[in-house]
Amino acid sequence: MCSFRCIETYSDSQDRERWGLGLRKRTRLLAPQSSETPQFVHLTNATPGGFRKMIDQMHTVGGFDMLIFSFGSGFNFEDVTPSYLEEIKGDVAYAKARGIEVGGYDLISETRGGTGYDEISPLTHHGTGSACMASSWERILTHKIMTFVNLTGISMIETDGPYGGQV
């Protein structure tokens, strides 16, 4: 059995502007998130100096909502050493004092080959090099990232992988 929902918008007029106003009101009511467009910057220099310089620039220019530690920046979501967590916590506090949220990027899929957490190919019975979220590694990763988030105040996680099309 298959079913679906259909939401119709009725209008009392053929006026295009009135019709458009009705559609926009429906969108705001049913899917307000679809009209939110946060402005963010991907930071490629994760040193404290590079971070604070970019936060100051974003604050001066105005209109930015978030800075994301980008891939290749040196940022490491999985480093839960106390000194690194304190460094990031200080950076996050600096940004939040200027009204800017902080997020980070973590490459999940491509970096796990040969770690014992690989997905196993049913054809070759060897690891594919892609992370397997059904392994114990997922619990290890989740614990590290949640520890990182809770101790630093970082407010967004951007991930790359694992690829859902893998067997």
Describe this protein's structure.
There is one protein chain. This protein is of the alpha/beta class and 167 residues long. It has one domain (38-160): TIM Barrel, CATH 3.20.20. It is 37% helix and 17% strand. The chain has four helices and six strands. The protein has a four-stranded parallel beta sheet with strand order 1-2-3-6. The radius of gyration is 22 Å and the shape is flat. The mean pLDDT is 84.
Outline of the structure:
By secondary structure, the chain is α/β, with parallel strands linked by helices. Helix content is 37%, strand content 17%. The chain is flat and about 65 Å long.
How are the SSEs ordered, and which strands pair?
Layout: H1 16-30, E1 40-43, H2 48-61, E2 66-69, H3 82-96, E3 101-107, E4 118-120, E5 127-131, H4 136-152, E6 156-160
Parallel strand pairs: 1-2, 2-3, 3-6
Antiparallel strand pairs: 4-5
Strand-residue proportion: 15-25%
CATH class: Alpha Beta
CATH architecture: Alpha-Beta Barrel
Quick one: how many beta strands?
6
**Net shape:** flat
Major sheet size, sense and barrel closure: 4 strands, parallel
Poorly predicted tracts of residues: none
Helicity range of the residues? 25-40%
CATH superfamily: Glycosidases
Average pLDDT, all residues: 84
Number of helices, where a helix is a run of at least 4 consecutive DSSP H or I residues: 4
Q: N- to C-terminal separation?
A: 28 Å
Radius of gyration: 22 Å
Order of helices and strands: HEHEHEEEHE
As laid out across the biggest beta sheet, the strand order is 1-2-3-6
Estimate nothing, just give the exact number of structural domains. 1
Structural class, judged by helices and strands? alpha/beta
Find the CATH topology: TIM Barrel
